[in-house]
Design goal:
159 residues; alpha+beta; 5-stranded mixed β-sheet; 4 helices; globular
Length: 159
Amino acid sequence: MTLTIREMTEGDETAVLGLLLELTGHEASLNPARTTGPAAAQACLADDREKAAAHGGTLFVAEQAGEVVGYLALRLERTGPFVHEHLRDHVYIENIVVAASQRGTGVGQALLAQAERFARASGCKVIQLGVLTGNEMALKAYRRAGFDSFALEMAKVLD
């Protein structure tokens, strides 16, 4: 079956919300601070749209046999002066999710390849993303695509 990566359209919204519901549910299982449910999925999509519009990004879907099986939200960013100048402009992957039924079939790698094409077309030499602690399947997929650890973010919840 042919996999197509294309820009998201309004007609994809219901399918993308379903994918984001899967994503938020998975993330909530890894970290109790994460929200899940339909309202969280809708908020994620609204946030992705806002950030993409404000920062030169875009939203993509992976489609197979007429069904949306993956989603990718990208935006352009600039890192501060603590990074070499030629590495400051980068693409940030805000969200990436593959339908549970399609994981391990290459959909995620195809979406990551789309992020790379977008970065190259935008003149960026770096792609960044965040991954939750404990999300070993995602870490393996990102490493398989050539990503390496760049920074570690930590949090402390105050009373």
